[in-house]
Write a structure and sequence with these properties.
This protein is of the alpha+beta class. The chain is about 65% helix and about 10% strand. It has 22 helices and 13 strands. It has a six-stranded antiparallel sheet, sandwiched between helices. The radius of gyration is 41 Å and the shape is elongated. About 0% of the residues have low confidence.
């Protein structure tokens, strides 16, 4: 009966793991994690098949079992190795030690035992116990080291590993205590394999080729080692007691205990409530302080400062940073806005709309002054505390929502930035002084982060208004120039209206003013912000002639210099900059002195000089005041013409030079790269890239 059960259960397990291995093979092995998973699945199938064919206590069964274990250890090592850049030597040594134990076990299986058969069995059982303990410690270490979002991919295979190695640990312990391999447990091992197979099958289809990211604190966890040691002590005591009582039912009781302990472990260990309860008890009875403050602060600052793979906004990271301290699974951020204190963000908290509901102003004032952390369960159970006025001001919706556990005020420089509401953890406990102290420190840090973020947002808004005001100042300057030009046209028309040449110049000026006003209207639109023409070759002489023609009805303008000088620039913006400089020159020049536009070449640059015979400027004014916005020596001047001209020319890769002598006039020189030089540089770069490619 036992033999038949062993054969059929192991045969079924072999078929299941073989099918899973084929599925993994079809998915493809992209790296060593996938490859070792495939080997481990195939090794498990071969092991189960070997037991079904040759029996559970044969050399073939033992050797294939070691191959299976080696495959799973290699898989876990690859996940650990690729999951983090921080690789503690302690963890690596455990992987190496387990591998060495598996090699020793294989050597003992191959070597003849002879008369020392009993000693060999004891040695093998002891080594198997050590191997299983080390493997279970690594399972616990790998799972706890994984980041929260990565644990879903690891949970099922980790449970599968636990089934396999907890069963093998019980089997080896029983063999060590009874000095014989228990036939019942050997036969039932196929059932354990069948239980584990679906877990690996589901995990393979869920995992994205085992790309699991581990946290930065990947250290060997000794609590799991202590728990396994305690379990072994209890098991040894119970098994020895059952063996001492003897009788026909002793072996049945021992096997029943093994299965009961395995079932209890599988039920309790995945339970978040049990694990939370265990952490609380361990922290309370084994450690002086509940928290490892260095690790807590590292985790806290990492959560706040890094958006993470899901690119969470700061408001959500604020909730998570405080929730992680108390192991709370969710929370709300209530923050100030123009409409009062409203819900601004939620994390794992459904059925609450962003932007509602509101927290009364009286509660805001109270929390600003006290900074008290509020526990809602106490208010629900005993009513508002008369010694704490905040309790009576808690909104009813928070008391009605039983998820709400703790309210943490975020106070920054005597101003309440917000309130974080945390939900109940899996295991609810009463907060103590250590919790409150850590939460207060963390809340101050969170408040400073939020205040800085809100300040940055306000600064960005101010910068947008500043940009709009700057553009509007330039536009007002252009409007003022056009108004001055049109006023001069009107005055001159009274004297020269009968002159055909004047009428032609007047029409050109009016046409230019119309075009410029249309351009100003376009610049006022936010939709046209930043729109630029592509730089192209512009003839400086033609541009100078066009500007001179537009301005001659207002003031004499002459054009001199070379004819064939082309620069690379944005046509409309270069004309705008030159127009500012010519207008300024006209306004400060005597009526009898023309403004001169001189075109020339200097090395690889084209230059256009705007020369006036005005009063000139001192060196101190040129270096300290000339290009400062809103500073002008002219009556009713805006002081932005020279500043805007220099800004435009600099954006096109050029520069604006100034030379001036008081009493002799001023020369503004526009310097831009020659178009043919830029074209030659591009051609040389293209040829060089082609040579490198060849």
């Amino acid at each position: 009966m036992i033999e038949a059960f062993s054969i059929w259960s192991h045969a079924l397990a072999a078929a299941l793991f073989g099918a899973i291995a084929i599925s993994q093979l079809q998915r493809g092995a992209r790296d060593w994690r996938d490859f070792t998973m495939l080997l481990a699945l195939a090794g498990t199938s071969v092991f189960a098949l070997s037991v079904a064919i040759s029996g559970p206590a044969t050399m073939a069964a033992h050797l294939t079992e070691h191959l299976r274990n080696l495959g799973w250890i290699a898989f876990m090592y690859m996940v650990w190795r690729h999951g983090t850049q921080n690789k503690p030597q302690t963890v690596a040594l455990v992987y190496g030690a387990i591998t060495l134990i598996l090699v020793l076990l294989a050597m003992l299986d191959i070597a003849p035992t002879g008369a020392a058969e009993n000693v060999s069995l004891m040695t093998q059982a002891l080594l198997r116990m050590i191997m299983c303990i080390g493997a279970l410690v690594l399972v616990h270490n790998l799972y706890t080291a994984a980041e929260e979002e990565a644990r879903d991919a690891l949970r099922l295979p980790m449970i599968g590993f636990t089934i396999l190695w907890v069963y093998d640990l019980n089997l080896a312990t029983m063999a060590y205590l009874t000095r014989d391999w228990p036939e019942e447990l050997l036969a039932a091992r196929g059932l354990a394999l069948i239980m584990a197979a679906p877990l690996f099958a589901i995990a393979i289809h869920r995992a994205a080729h085992w790309r699991v990211k581990l946290s930065r604190t990947v250290t060997l966890q000794t609590v799991s080692l202590a728990a396994i040691g305690l379990y072994l002590m209890v098991m040894v005591g119970i098994v020895q007691a059952l063996d001492y009582l003897g009788g026909e039912r002793a072996r049945l009781a021992q096997v029943s205990f093994v299965f009961a302990s395995l079932l209890a472990g599988l039920i309790l260990m995945p339970s978040s409530t049990f694990r939370a309860w265990l952490r609380v008890k361990i922290a309370k009875h084994l450690f002086k302080h509940r928290y490892d403050y260095r690790l807590e602060w590292q985790r806290f600052t990492d959560t706040l400062g890094q958006p993470g793979e899901d690119f969470s906004p700061l408001d959500v990271r604020v909730i998570r940073a405080l929730a992680d301290i108390l192991e709370s699974p969710g929370g709300l951020l209530i923050a100030e806005s123009s409409a009062g204190m409203l819900v601004q963000a939620q994390w794992n908290w459904d059925n609450v709309s962003i932007g509602s509901p509101c927290v009364p102003a009286a509660l805001v004032t109270r929390l600003t002054n006290s900074g008290r952390i509020i526990e809602f369960d106490s208010i629900r159970a005993h009513g508002p505390d008369p010694d704490h006025g905040e309790d009576a001001l808690i909104p009813q919706w928070l008391l009605t929502d039983t998820r709400a556990w703790v309210a943490v005020p975020l106070v920054h420089f005597d101003r309440l930035i917000g309130i974080v509401i945390l939900s109940h953890p899996p295991f609810v406990r009463t907060l103590d002084w250590e919790d409150f102290d850590l939460l207060r420190v963390a809340a101050r840090q969170v408040a400073s982060y939020l205040a800085e973020a809100r300040g940055q947002e306000a600064l960005a808004d101010v910068k947008q208004f500043d940009e709009f005001n700057r553009r509007f100042a330039f536009i007002m300057h252009d409007i003022k120039n056009m108004a001055s030009q049109l006023a001069l046209v009107v005055r001159n028309a009274e004297r020269h209206a009968d002159n055909p040449e004047f009428r032609a110049d007047m029409i050109a000026t009016l046409k230019s003013s119309t075009e410029r006003m249309n351009g100003l209207l376009a610049r006022l639109s936010q939709h046209n912000k930043g729109r630029r023409e592509e730089p192209r070759a512009i003839g400086l002489r033609a541009l100078a002639e066009r500007i001179a023609t537009q301005r001659r009805a207002l003031h004499p303008v002459v054009v001199m210099g070379e004819n064939d000088v082309s620069v690379l620039a944005d046509p409309s913006r270069l004309e705008q900059a030159l127009g500012h400089l010519v207008q300024n020159a006209m306004e400060i020049s005597p009526a009898s002195e023309p403004v001169a536009l001189f075109v020339r070449v200097d090395a690889n640059n084209g230059m256009l000089d705007v020369i006036d015979k005005g009063a000139g400027m001192s060196p101190a004014f040129i270096h300290g005041q000339l290009f400062k916005p809103f500073v002008s020596t002219k009556e009713n001047g805006f002081g932005v013409g020279a500043f805007e001209a220099r800004t435009i020319i600099a954006e096109m890769g050029g520069r604006l030079d100034v030379t001036s002598r008081e009493g002799h006039g001023t020369t503004f020189s526009i310097v831009l790269p020659l178009a043919k030089v830029v074209a030659a540089d591009k051609s040389n770069h293209s040829s060089h890239d082609q040579d490198l490619a060849a």
